[in-house]
Amino acid sequence: MIRRFFLSRVLAFAAAILASAAAPAAEVRVVSSGGFAAAYRALAPEFERRTGHGLVTEWGPSMGQTPQAVPARLARGEPIDVVIMVGYALDDLIRQGKVSADSRTALARSGIALAVRAGAPKPDISSIDGLRRTLLAAKSIAYSDSASGVYIETELFRRLGIADAVKAKARMIPAEPVGAVVARGEAEVGFQQLSELKPVPGIEIVGLLPAEVQLYTEFSAGRVEGSRAPEAASALIGFLASPDAAGAIRESGMEPLPAGAAK
Predict the structure, then answer these.
(1) Structural domain contains residue 71
(2) pLDDT of residue 5 exceeding 50
(3) Which residues form the signal peptide (predicted)?
(4) To which H or E segment does residue 191 belong?
(5) How far apart are the C-alpha atoms of 179 and 205, rounded to whole Å?
């Protein structure tokens, strides 16, 4: 059954590439959240080489109030063909009629990790108690304005019983990698998806959150309604979900997901 599933996925990807290659070369405009950025940067040149299509890529969070956020871009009518973002935020756009429902494709999932500035001592976060002690002792805590940060702020601190104790020293970072803030010494510890922390210089990743309080975030892709290059957009989504993309996804710190994975 597993073999049949992967065979059908390969055949679907091959069909999309062939259909795309038969059409004139197109320009595909993509907006991706930072969580999938490292994998995308590794895979984009290969897609362009195989298909002849060109990719024009910008970055923005899956949610939040910044102008760069994917929902804000679509609301003001930016010409976008493909969005890559947190799965449940993509579902909101599908309900609003801004992204094609039948194009929704699960790509990968990533866990939340903690980082410190390069050269700083690495605290013990291998257990719930160790994580709690680390956060209580930290002078400052940073987290993102996307899915992982919302979880940290609204659930994790409460589950650890430290929400009031850390409130004054914890802050959400809008429109910038949390790792960059930690690397500059503006926060002693920082939380973000592992895939978003890995590319940032000047930090050391302590590790993933303990399993009991871990939250895995799914990243998915969808074709924007009214896309000017729908065939090329679908081919890109198919390529990113194909077995050929799995190695780059793993290297970026994420786990590839099968198409049709649970939301």
Answers:
(1) yes
(2) no
(3) 1-25
(4) strand 189-193
(5) 9
Distance CA 20, CA 48 (A): 11
What CATH number is given to the structural domain containing 149? 3.40.190.10
Report the alpha-carbon distance of residue 184 to residue 182 in Å, rounded: 5
Please give the pLDDT value at position 144: 92
Q: What is the rounded distance in angstroms from the CA atom of residue 252 to the CA atom of residue 35?
A: 9
Is-contact 81 28, C-beta < 8 A?
yes
Note down the domain range covering 186.
112-213
Cβ proximity of 109 and 262 under 8 Å? no
- Cα→Cα distances 145→20, 26, 66, 124, 149, Å: 36, 33, 9, 25, 5
pLDDT score of 147: 85
Residue 263 lies in a domain: no
Q: Judge contact between 26 and 231, C-beta under 8 A.
A: yes
Burial bucket for residue 263 (CB in 10 Å: 0-12, 13-18, 19+):
exposed
Q: What is the pLDDT of residue 11?
A: 52
Q: What would you measure as the largest C-alpha separation in the chain, in angstroms?
A: 60
| pLDDT band of 132, cuts 50, 70, 90 | very high
Same domain? 190 vs 243: no
**Structural domains counted in the chain:** 2
pLDDT at 14: 54
